[in-house]
Write a structure and sequence with these properties.
- The chain is α+β, with helices and mostly antiparallel strands.
- The protein contains ten helices and 19 strands.
- The strands form six sheets. Strands 2-8-5-6 form a four-stranded antiparallel beta sheet. Strands 11-18-15-16 form a four-stranded antiparallel beta sheet.
- α2 crosses α4 and α7 packs across α9.
- The longest helix is centred in the middle third of the chain and has 28 residues.
- It starts with 9 loop residues before the first strand and ends with a helix.
Length: 358
């Protein structure tokens, strides 16, 4: 889809366009499983962290609104009634407007999300700061009113494209071939990849020492989502920054035994060494994806809740990889294989963004 033309859009103050409120105080831990979404300050899955059974005679938060996370400005349109996380701290914000519809709500939620990316764990939103924020929206010609009809038509077009591309994704999956690993050989992970020294930061320190800056670095934690990035911060302390050389590094968490890659400087949430960092000079943006896939599958069979992926166990872990005739890891094969896989889906990669919007 072509880049949207915003030349004729107009500024709107969120507090003038929406009624802003918070849910009553609720904790997901106090609910049993049910069929009503519990919406909290997450940045994925429409903010839904659990499906719950409401308390007897409990009034639900009404749907047809936009919910916003105070932690990072993530915004989602909620179609159905829900249980919202309320109370102090990171309670969600709810935006209501009588003219909102499902399609225009999806459109505006994506606009709000882009406008609020500057907020983070250490610089949270509240009812007043979001009320003062500015967003840009299309307007009805020769008026100063938001053009909800245009927004609905635009989102319907995106939804139609998403339906088409979901089918394309299914076709891609059907075409994927099985990798023959008969000629692969065993490697000791710690002999192929060098473990790196690391500096960790406590969330409290990050909260109290985060600086206003145009340069923000990822703050990594033991998360299985968003490439383990929990926020973006800037600390006026170069000592605490990892990977200043911007090498490609593999991040492995001991608790959830998942691996991720990163190629930029980052801060690391303290966890008593529960996260490990590995590097190899042969890594590039293609073969590292191959390695990550192999690692996650390998660790799935080695580690669990009781058996953690500690630094010592990772260094001695056996990983099966394609090898050259001289017995070295075949970095070129891994790179070319990943390029092939990426080329197969090249035409639809951009559509994941559409799926996120919708």
């Amino acid at each position: 889809m072509k880049k949207i033309n915003t030349n004729d859009w107009k500024e709107f103050v969120i507090g003038e366009l929406f009624e802003i409120s918070r849910p009553i105080a609720r904790s997901q831990a106090k609910y049993t499983e049910g069929n009503v979404p519990f919406v909290a300050s997450g940045n994925y899955n429409n903010g839904i962290v659990k499906w719950c059974m409401p308390k007897e005679d409990e009034a639900l938060d009404l749907g047809n609104c936009i919910t916003v996370s105070p932690l990072d400005g993530s915004a989602f349109y909620q179609k159905e009634n829900f249980l919202g996380r309320g109370g102090a701290g990171s309670a969600i914000l709810m935006l209501r407007n009588d003219e909102l519809t499902e399609l225009s709500g999806l459109f505006i939620a994506s606009v709000i999300r882009n406008a609020l990316t500057k907020y983070s764990y250490s610089d949270q939103l509240n009812s007043q700061t979001i009320a003062d924020e500015i967003i840009w929206l299309p307007i009805v010609k020769n008026t100063e009113k938001p053009d909800y009809t245009y927004m609905e038509k635009y989102m319907q077009k995106i939804l139609n494209e998403v339906d088409i591309n979901i089918e394309n994704l299914k076709k891609v999956k059907e075409k994927q071939s099985v990798v023959d690993i008969k000629e692969w050989r065993d490697f000791v992970f710690g002999e192929v990849f060098e473990i790196q020294p690391q500096k960790e930061v406590s969330p409290i320190y990050a909260l109290n020492n985060s600086q206003k800056s145009d340069v923000l670095y990822p703050f990594l934690g033991q998360s299985s989502e968003n490439n383990c990035i929990i926020s973006y911060i800037y600390l006026d302390d170069e000592v605490l920054l990892n990977n200043k050389e911007k090498d490609i590094a593999i991040i492995i968490h001991s608790n959830n035994h998942l691996s991720f890659c990163i190629d930029e400087p980052f801060y690391l949430k303290d966890g008593h060494g529960a996260t490990s960092i590995f590097k190899n000079n042969n890594l590039n943006i293609y073969n590292v994806r191959f390695i990550i896939a192999v690692l996650n599958k390998t660790m799935e069979n080695l580690f669990n809740y009781d058996v953690k992926a500690t630094k010592d166990s990772l260094k001695t872990m056996i990983v099966k990889l394609p090898a050259t005739s001289t017995g070295e890891p075949d970095w070129n094969y891994m790179e070319q294989r990943m390029k092939k896989e990426m080329n197969i889906s090249e035409k639809i990669i951009g559509n994941f963004e559409l799926l996120n919007i919708c």
